[in-house]
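Anyone up for a design puzzle?
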């Protein structure tokens, strides 16, 4: 120990960074293996088809909403209900939901208008009436941008074993040809997938709730959904409270298919920045680590550390680092995507570069502007993740 402390600080820092990058390399490898082992497994028949209440909180209409909602009327599962939620009866999605409900009278569906103010999180408020009226033991919270495969509900219920109370689909995206959506798909299939897969494998709570199934009885043990109304990241705190009570979290084999029709590069950056602000507030201990695990920052510090310790040419080390990282990401993306990959290598490369290059900027932007603009409101969070100030309405 004393010989370590006698080293020059720059040598110590270089050693620490090499150890960190070694850990990160292990994370890449684990994610590759886990994606192959876990994702896209054939869906098996269940011994019991437990009923599921699907909560669909909606705000407004975007170009793919109708197609996305339509997939929920075609789910291949014997016992489910669809509970659509809107904040007010002037929401443009109301006529669309009514039209679909008339078109599919055999699907058990209801529309809840007006929400219930249990806290400051608008999504929770929006879902409350549907949650209270849900009749099945399993709740699926499914965001408006999600497209559902017919077999996906069976897949999720299959992972809801006796000890499990929360099953999430790993966030991913439906194939779309435009640049913005492809950028989003690359993020969710590489950087995000790596953390999400390894987090789940090692039992870290990292529940992102765009498509998450919860055992209602277990949520009631935590005080019910209304108890989470003061957190903006209700999805993460569902996981925290459930695991505190001894429940486990599971991961479905089929990733969630986000399919918004209005994603641009700018809207993607804004969303990534908003999520970073959430993590700053609720997980301050990962603030330091987060930028270091992004490709370009890691590449720069790694090559400087190697140069400092060994004198090796940093440009050659950088080139090797980048090629290895890129190959690992492309392979992970393929595994997360599953069969019939549509994105070619050149397009992947350009958008991957764009995503990685902008990652540090998004991080800095999130640090400098703590206000969180989300749909119709602007919020500030206290350390720990509670909403601190009453939301201001966006113009
Ligand atoms: C030796 C190497 C160590 C590396 C350590 C890495 C540390 C982690 C670094 C980066 C974290 C990246 C996080 C990726 C995903 C987070 C996505 C996210 O922020 N989602 C939030 C927003 O979700 C929406 O919120 C509004 C809601 O209405 C929507 O429905 C939601 O979709 C979400 O709220 C937060 C989720 C939890 C994030 C937890 C991240 C911590 C993960 C730590 C796992 C570490 C595993 C590796 C351990 C060695
Ligand atoms: O004021 C709001 C904001 C969002 N939502 C719902 O919350 C979900 C997630 O919203 P969004 O896609 O904007 O969140 P993100 O995934 O970008 O964090 C969607 O189903 C929205 O309809 C809501 O009901 N009220």
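Challenge accepted. My sequence:
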């Amino acid at each position: 120990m004393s010989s370590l402390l006698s080293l020059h600080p720059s040598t110590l820092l270089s050693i620490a960074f090499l150890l960190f990058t070694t850990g990160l390399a292990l994370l890449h490898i684990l994610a590759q293996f886990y994606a192959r082992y876990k994702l896209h497994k054939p869906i098996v028949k269940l011994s019991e088809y437990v009923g599921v209440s699907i909560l669909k909180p909606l705000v407004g209409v975007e170009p793919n909403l109708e197609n996305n909602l339509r997939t929920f009327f075609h789910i291949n599962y014997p016992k489910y209900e669809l509970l659509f939620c809107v904040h007010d009866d002037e929401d443009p999605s109301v006529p669309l939901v009514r039209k679909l409900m008339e078109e599919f009278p055999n699907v058990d569906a209801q529309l809840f208008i007006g929400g219930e103010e249990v806290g400051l999180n608008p999504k929770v408020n929006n879902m409350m009436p549907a949650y209270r009226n849900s009749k099945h033991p399993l709740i699926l919270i499914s965001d408006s941008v999600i497209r559902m495969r017919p077999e996906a509900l069976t897949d999720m219920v299959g992972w809801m074993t006796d000890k499990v109370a929360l099953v999430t689909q790993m966030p991913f995206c439906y194939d779309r040809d435009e640049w913005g959506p492809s950028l989003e798909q690359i993020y969710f299939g590489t950087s995000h997938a790596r953390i999400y897969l390894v987090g789940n494998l090692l039992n870290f709570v990292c529940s992102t709730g765009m498509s998450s199934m919860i055992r209602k009885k277990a949520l009631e043990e935590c005080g019910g959904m209304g108890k989470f109304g003061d957190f903006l990241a209700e999805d993460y705190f569902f996981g925290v409270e459930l695991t505190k009570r001894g429940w486990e979290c599971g991961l479905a084999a089929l990733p969630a298919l986000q399919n918004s029709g209005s994603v641009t590069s700018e809207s993607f950056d804004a969303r990534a920045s908003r999520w970073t602000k959430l993590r700053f507030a609720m997980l301050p201990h990962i603030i330091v680590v987060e930028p270091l695990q992004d490709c370009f920052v890691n590449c720069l510090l790694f090559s400087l550390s190697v140069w400092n310790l060994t004198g090796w040419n940093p440009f050659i080390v950088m080139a090797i680092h980048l090629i290895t990282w890129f190959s690992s990401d492309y392979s992970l993306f393929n595994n997360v995507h599953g069969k019939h990959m549509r994105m070619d290598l050149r397009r992947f490369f350009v958008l991957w570069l764009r995503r990685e290059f902008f990652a540090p900027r998004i991080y800095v932007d999130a640090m400098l502007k703590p206000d969180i603009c989300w749909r119709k409101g602007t919020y500030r969070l206290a350390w720990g993740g509670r909403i601190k100030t009453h939301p201001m309405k966006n113009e």
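A detail worth pointing out: The mean pLDDT is 95.
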